[in-house]
């Protein structure tokens, strides 16, 4: 029996269509029979989402939810954004696919628009379909260009599910007992909440960077192919590094012959609110940037953007990608860039994200369960602990909160190795009223526990 007054979703003019497709039970039965059992669903009783409009989702019963996860940090500008959809539909009716063996204006114009968002030297894009694929390609480029083999990645990182990306990933939950991670060494994660060097240690950035230096000196021939890190860890639970960490690490990596790879799959495209790319917050310029997710607002598109001389390394043999850079995905990508700019979504991410963070930090005085709240823009994490001293992860409580807010009409994500971190990565069109609804739901759900 729930006793609190339930927060109310802000009003919307959108009217969801009546769902007339197969029933929930039929879909569940089909999924169980014909889809891989490795597909996860969230919630004790999963939900079936059949419609989306900007920051809202609708299930088959017509129930509306605020989408606090954005298709896992992917629907950056809003579900079924009219400009993105129009660009895709127009292109779909003209030419869906021909491959890059022929010229097409979309891929060329999109590559120019995309690289215009990056520092001048990062001027060449290889467009593919998914973040995992892009990370795999980035590693190949780094190794070919440097002639070196070893790669340094971070613990608590997630870089995808193909074998190379799984090898870069450092979360036991996502790693199978299969050959992977050749030449990959995992350094300490610069986590100032749980790691050995905390936020009160002014020297934390240097100390974490020293671990990378020691790893290179002791575990590799001293010459490496590269270093890869997300600019804010996503799946790992929104880990933000000390500001001097990446500059120090990049210096050591370059002195060891390696290139620096920024995985911007989650943090890119304005989500962090202060910068279009996450690496800009740390005032570094990577040699290779990997991007995906928000890039197509849900259309399958990803890219490796790098310097011409690094891209050149891939020409020693033929490399081909069937769907990569197809006209429809590129039309979506171009429209996404225009919408982020025209609707000032990065600025909105900052305004709304700051508001959420401020209010959640305010709740820390009321709820001991909240151990930490962190992040930037609309890439936020709330870490739940059973005890603020021991920081014992409150994993079951996190599940209960997610279930309860779902009933109230709020969908959120879960992260961290122990599943005790709520991840907030909504479409960047979310409003202050939505943000208040979100925090009110969290407050009510925690109060009920
Ligand atoms: C930081 C990061 N890199 C790479 C990937 C892999 O992307 P994809 O699922 O498109 O293969 C993900 C996916 O969640 C991610 O969060």
Record keyword descriptors for this entry.
binds pyridoxal-5'-phosphate; 35% helix; single chain; Aspartate Aminotransferase, domain 1; alpha/beta; four-stranded mixed β-sheet; Aspartate Aminotransferase, domain 2
Blueprint of the fold:
Layout: H1 24-34, E1 49-53, E2 56-59, E3 64-67, H2 70-73, H3 82-92, H4 105-115, E4 124-128, H5 131-146, E5 151-154, H6 163-168, E6 184-187, H7 204-219, E7 226-230, H8 245-255, E8 259-263, E9 288-291, E10 302-306, H9 308-312, H10 327-342, H11 345-363, E11 370-376, E12 379-384, H12 395-408, E13 410-411, E14 413-415, E15 421-424, H13 432-448
Parallel strand pairs: 3-13, 5-6, 5-7, 7-8, 8-9
Antiparallel strand pairs: 1-2, 2-3, 4-10, 9-10, 11-12, 12-15, 14-15
The structure holds pyridoxal-5'-phosphate.
The site of pyridoxal-5'-phosphate has 15 residues, from helix 5.
Describe it for me?
- The chain is of the alpha/beta class.
- The chain folds into two domains: 24-77 and 345-448, Aspartate Aminotransferase, domain 1 (Alpha-Beta Complex), CATH 3.90.1150; 82-342, Aspartate Aminotransferase, domain 2.
- Helix content is 35%, strand content 15%.
- It is built from 13 helices and 15 strands.
- It has helices spanning 24-34, 70-73, 82-92, 105-115, 131-146, 163-168, 204-219, 245-255, 308-312, 327-342, 345-363, 395-408, 432-448; strands at residues 49-53, 56-59, 64-67, 124-128, 151-154, 184-187, 226-230, 259-263, 288-291, 302-306, 370-376, 379-384, 410-411, 413-415, 421-424.
- The protein has a seven-stranded mixed β-sheet, with helices on both faces. The protein has a four-stranded mixed β-sheet with strand order 1-2-3-13.
- α8 (245-255) links the parallel β7 (226-230) and β8 (259-263).
- α3 (82-92) packs antiparallel against α10, α4 (105-115) packs parallel to α10 and α7 packs parallel to α8.
- The longest helix is centred in the C-terminal third of the chain and has 19 residues, at 345-363.
- It is globular, with a radius of gyration of 22 Å.
- The structure holds pyridoxal-5'-phosphate.
- Pyridoxal-5'-phosphate binds at residues 72, 130-132, 135, 158-160, 230, 234-235, 263, 265-266, 292.
């Amino acid at each position: 029996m729930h006793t609190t007054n339930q927060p109310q979703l802000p009003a919307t003019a959108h009217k969801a269509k009546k769902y007339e497709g197969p029933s929930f039970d039929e879909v569940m039965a089909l999924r169980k029979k014909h889809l891989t059992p490795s597909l996860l669903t969230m919630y004790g009783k999963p939900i079936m989402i059949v419609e989306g409009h900007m920051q809202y989702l609708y299930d088959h019963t017509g129930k509306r939810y605020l989408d606090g996860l954005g298709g896992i940090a992917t629907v950056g500008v809003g579900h079924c954004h009219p400009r993105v959809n129009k660009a895709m539909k127009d292109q779909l009716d003209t030419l869906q696919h021909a491959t890059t063996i022929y010229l097409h204006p979309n891929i060329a114009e999109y590559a120019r628009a995309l690289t215009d968002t990056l520092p001048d030297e990062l001027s060449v894009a290889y467009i593919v379909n998914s973040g995992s694929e892009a990370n795999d390609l980035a590693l190949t480029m780094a190794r070919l260009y440097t002639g070196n083999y070893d790669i340094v990645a971070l613990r608590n990182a997630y870089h995808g599910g193909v074998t190379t990306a799984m090898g870069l990933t450092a979360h036991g939950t996502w790693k199978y007992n299969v050959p992977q991670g050749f030449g990959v060494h995992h350094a300490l994660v610069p986590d100032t909440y749980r790691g050995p060097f905390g936020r009160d240690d002014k020297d934390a950035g240097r100390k974490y960077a020293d671990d990378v230096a020691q790893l290179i000196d002791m575990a590799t021939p001293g010459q490496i192919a590269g270093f890869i890190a997300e600019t804010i860890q996503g799946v790992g639970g929104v880990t933000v590094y000390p500001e001097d960490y990446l500059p120090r690490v990049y210096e050591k990596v370059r002195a060891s012959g390696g290139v620096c790879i920024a995985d911007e799959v989650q943090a890119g495209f304005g989500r962090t609110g202060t910068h279009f790319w996450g690496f800009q917050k740390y005032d570094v310029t990577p040699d290779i940037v990997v991007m995906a997710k928000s890039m197509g607002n849900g259309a399958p598109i990803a890219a490796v953007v790098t310097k011409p001389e690094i891209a050149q390394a891939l020409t020693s043999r033929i490399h081909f990608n069937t769907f990569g850079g197809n006209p429809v995905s590129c039309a979506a990508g171009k429209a996404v860039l225009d919408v982020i700019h025209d609707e000032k979504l990065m600025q909105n991410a900052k305004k709304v994200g700051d508001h959420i963070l401020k209010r959640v930090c305010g709740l820390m005085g009321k709820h001991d369960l909240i151990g930490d709240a962190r992040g930037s823009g609309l890439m936020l994490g709330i870490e739940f602990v059973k005890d603020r001293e021991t920081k014992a992860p409150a994993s079951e409580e996190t599940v209960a909160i997610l279930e309860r807010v779902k009933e109230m009409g709020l969908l959120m994500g879960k992260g961290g190795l122990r599943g005790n971190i709520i991840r907030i990565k909504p479409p960047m069109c979310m409003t202050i009223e939505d943000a208040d609804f979100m925090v009110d739901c969290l407050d009510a759900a925690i109060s009920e526990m």
